[in-house]
Amino acid sequence: MRFLFSFFFFSYAILLVGNPVEAQVLCLGGECSNIPSEYQLLGNFAEPVFDRIYTNGFLRSMGENAVLQNLNSNQSGGSNIERYRLGLGYTISQGREKARDFYYENSELRTLPKKGAAASPSLSFTANLGQWLDGAFAKQWNLTTHFFPYEFNEANIPFVKIRNTDVRGRVFNSGAVLRYFPIDSGFSFGMGVFQTNQDLYLSAYDRRPTQFRIDGDKRRWIGQNDLYYQSRIVSGSLDLKYNYTIGFFSIIPGIGFVYNHGYTAIHASRFAAISTMANPDDFGSVPSAIGIRLSTRHNHRSGFGYGSLGLQISMGKFSFVTELMAGKEIQSINLSLQLQF
After folding, report:
1. pLDDT for the residue numbered 14
2. Could you tell me the superkingdom of the organism this chain comes from (predicted)?
3. Rounded distance, CA 180 to CA 229, Å?
4. For residues 160 and 142, what is the distance between their CA atoms, to the nearest angstrom?
5. How far apart are CA 43 and CA 213, in angstroms?
6. What does each C-alpha distance from 33 to 214, 234, 251 come to in angstroms?
7. What does the DSSP 8-state code read for residue 310?
8. 206-258 pLDDT, tens digit each
9. Cβ-contact 305, 257 below 8 angstroms
10. CA–CA distance from 217 to each of 107, 278, 330 (Å)?
11. Contact yes or no for 131/92 (Cβ under 8 A)
């Protein structure tokens, strides 16, 4: 017997690819009585979205991209600043780890990026500790801090161009690096602490009904899709750099290591009207709708090493600097203009 109105709600955790996946499904309308079981329903939606898309490797790569971008935004350089320095720059980071077989049940979110990426401007300030403390030893230390609260949308970010999708987000990264310069050696040693905060929102609606299956039966649905990405990571870093200068041109190679503690989380939701089991094009005879919420989280409790190469052109009090950082699966580049005073 077909019920004119039926309702069901399921909420539990599924273990997929090592991630705890939370899934909730809400169905309203008479067609809900034709959906066989929660296992088949949640298996149909949770497995494609998270098992095939957001693996541990991809979530880790997205978080490490954000961290490397934050490190590169610091602009601490490799030369001892005698007094103070201000820097304004822009940093981009991208990973090699890809999402696997991306699709969101033929909805508009199938066009989401397959690679992790991060980008934002940053403002840095460097001070020689000898300006605040007495003694020759204090003059061998620089302290560089940076931050930039940055809200973006598709119009002002270079790495997210998604057709028919609303994109917005915010970045609030900050950090501080204490750098020691042994006298006349060219080498410097840096110790830093960083806070990486990133949020990305994507929203799209289906322009036409698309097909999906429930227990082998073809259905169609049309609705709204939303995805929310979030990183909250605290990092500590150690690095070694060498400054080689010829006239106004400097080459600054280096190596470093960073340890991360925090998380990267993904939340996806879809709310859609569903067709009848008898006719995939019939949305009106038995009005029914389904809502699906899925979320997963990767905890960062590990570190990675990286190499860096900085190039600096100095013209009086001004300097133009670019620095490339690269890990095993990620790379970042920073361009900045700096003023000493």
Report:
1. 39
2. Bacteria
3. 37
4. 36
5. 11
6. 12, 48, 69
7. E
8. 888 877 777 677 788 888 888 888 999 999 999 999 999 999 999 999 999 99
9. yes
10. 18, 9, 42
11. no
Domain definitions of the chain by residue range: 7-340
Q: Is the pLDDT of residue 4 over 50?
A: no
**What is the rounded CA–CA span in Å between residue 214 and residue 39?**
11
Tell me the three-class secondary structure of 185-209, residue by residue.
CCEEEEEEEEEEEEEEEEEEECCCC
Token representation of residue 107: 């909805």
What is the C-alpha to C-alpha distance for residues 326 and 331, in angstroms, rounded to an integer?
A: 4
Do 281 and 275 meet the contact criterion of CB atoms below 8 Å apart?
yes
Yes or no: say if 235 and 67 are a contact pair by the CB < 8 Å rule.
yes
46 phi, psi to nearest 5 deg = -70, -40
CA–chain centroid gap for 69, Å, is: 10
CA distances from 87 to 123, 316, 318 (A): 6, 15, 10
| SS3 label, residue 154 | helix
On whether the CB atoms of residues 182 and 148 are closer than 8 A, the answer is no
Residues 60, 327: contact at Cβ < 8 Å?
no
Using the predicted structure, report yes or no on whether residue 25 has a pLDDT greater than 90.
no
Query: How many residues comprise the chain?
Result: 341
Q: Residue 169: helix, strand or coil by DSSP? A: strand
Count of other CB atoms within 10 angstroms of residue 109: 23
d(CA 188, CA 79): 8
Select from 52, 116, 62 the least CA-distant residue to 300: 62
Q: Residue 137: helix, strand or coil by DSSP?
A: coil
Sign of CA dihedral 142, 147, 63, 113: negative
- pLDDT tens-digit map of 142-193: 999 999 888 877 666 555 556 667 878 888 899 999 999 998 889 999 999 9
